[in-house]
Amino acid sequence: MKDIIIVHDFDGRPYFKAIEKNFQCKFINSRPIRFLIRDIVKKRTITKDTIDSILFLFLLPFHKNQTIILGMAPFNFRLLFYGMLCYRNKVLLHSSWHQWLGRTPFSYINIFNKIFKKLWRHYLPRFERIIAVTKATKQSILDFSYPLSLNIDVIPHVVDIEPITRAELDKKWNSKCIQGLFVGRLTPEKGIKDIINISEKMQSGLLKDSNIKIAGKGYLEDDIVHASKRISGLLYMGYITSRDKLRDLMKQSQFFLLPSKKIKGWEELFGLVIVEAMSQGCVVIASNHIGPKEIIDNHKDGILCEESDFVDNTLRNFNNFHTDIYYYKEISMRALDKSQKYNMANISQLWVELINNIER
């Protein structure tokens, strides 16, 4: 089994499960000093990952003939060090960032911004391949790097969750009461106030016996707790870490809500949670952001709507549910089918083909 070194700004394990299926992976953090301080202050011990990452950093000039995946956001100054790996190794850059010409996760004073952008333009052609998580990311990198010639492939994140069975799907859509679900950060940009607004308007008429469940944490948690006390159809489930419990919630829900709001430098990107919900036969109703747009075909395997129309659009679909359940069940079945495009077998095969090609 071939060894792959994965260098990432954070813990790369959640993003590279599809590679681990067929290769022996060693995970390195690109910010080991920061994580060393965290280990000492919070954990009172130094983890093996931190030790490995520090050793890797100090031995940078001596690494050779390795296959390395660099998961680093633009325009991280650390490329000044890790970029040297390109000269004696086969290095693949992995990116999910979609605004290479706009706001980026790493920003400095103007003169340093210019320097580090030039540094990145210098190294981009020197990567063996560039792996973009979405087509939008690929296009953004090409726009930034023009007129450089780059080798860019698109490989989405893997969704390693057991899909809902047909019997479970049929049972879910036999219910006459709607169960909606939101999973994510409890922050304004995630559209939490829209969720509360929708649940308030569901308290009478056809929707009075339906509910929306919220799972997550964030600084709007108190707002959710207070709202759930006065709105019978709004249920706060707390922060759930168990993937099995999250899967069960999705499996029970007909609709998955993602009312994201654009803010400066952020919009909803490729959300694993969208595909996970689709794999459980949920009809995803999402804001028309760059990530959901790439996953969902509107009114075919999900529903996209403008931010300003999210509340009314969702309520309209909830009410239509009672007159045409079959329409929404059809959407959920197509969503389930599409979710398998992102399953372990398919995504791991894309990685195998790519890595085998660069090793020839």
Automatic annotation (TrEMBL):
Q: Which Gene Ontology molecular-function terms are recorded?
A: glycosyltransferase activity
Any one Pfam family here would be: Glycos_transf_1
Domain of life of the source? Bacteria
All copies of domain Glycosyl transferase family, residue ranges: 175-308
Keywords of this entry: Transferase
State the SUPFAM superfamilies in the record: UDP-Glycosyltransferase/glycogen phosphorylase (SSF53756)
| GO process terms (BP) | lipopolysaccharide biosynthetic process
User: Could you list the residue ranges that cross the membrane?
Assistant: none
Instruction: Give a yes or no for keyword Oxidoreductase in this entry.
Output: no
Enumerate the PANTHER family for this protein: GLYCOSYLTRANSFERASE WBBK-RELATED (PTHR46401)
Protein name, UniProt field: Putative glycosyltranslocase
